[in-house]
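User: Predict structure, ligand adenosine-5'-diphosphate.
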Amino acid sequence: MKLGALEAGGTKMVCAIGDETGKVFERISIPTKTPQETMPEMIAYFREKQIDALGIGCFGPIDPDPKSETYGYITSTPKLAWQNFNIVEAFKEALGCPVGFDTDVNASALGEATFGITKGLDCSMYLTVGTGIGAGIYINGELLHGMMHPEAGHILLQRHPQDSYGGKCPFHGNCFEGLAAGPAIEERWGKKAVQLADRPEVWEMEAFYIAQALVNYTMIFSPMRIVLGGGVMHQSQLFALIREKYKELMAGYIRTKELEDLDSYIVPYSLGDNQGIMGCLQLAVWAESKYRV
Ligand code: ADP
Ligand code: ZN
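Assistant: Predicted complex:
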């Protein structure tokens, strides 16, 4: 099958062509402007390739519930030009093929669960720590939506005792994203995150927040493995710090074989940063197979 994949981000739209084995044949990147400017470019790309189905992993919040009246819409996003835009219908109408739709992080979770490091596990999680923080949850062969979709970057955390920074999230002071996403690190310490690589206190604090979040996720979802990605995780020293803090905060409460080996419980993404686009290919596979029945 010839499948289209769209990783729709706030700054760029990555459009790719691939197949059901996760192979990506080609891709282009288009800056995210307004729907009026950006949609025709993406449609022209996919139309020319004559794809059988399209999978979209989208920045949010979105409505991924096929039973809802606003299914396929990008809903209350701060990117105002895209607010209340029905991206699924726009592609369906223009391309005439089945379209799968989910959050960008759910797509990454699906990419890892289908082709990558969480393949074969019944329940797994993908967390991105970048410009924002979000998590996708894969559970028993599906992606978790519930009433909308998880917004696991906005969970409330205990502050680090040495942290007087107010937080960057306009809604919540001490939410995870407000305290620990890239822009929060940069505002708190007054430098680009990448320029803070040699400041241990920066990463100790960052690990304190990420580990707290992961402990909460373990308690709530009981994932069998947690995959971490996003720009901030390029600081690979974070992994050891997170595992150490996680162990301390867990305090021996949960005893499973997975938690005995934190090196394989808390892991970096495995698909060379293609987990998102490969997950979109799998969303296209799902859309195509639903369409056939
Ligand atoms: P997005 O979340 O917008 O898709 P990224 O996942 O690349 O994009 O995240 C961008 C954020 O990650 C920025 O805030 C940036 O400061 C931070 N970042 C990018 N590269 C690094 C790095 N090498 N070390 C630390 N932080 C980084
Ligand atoms: Zn928040």
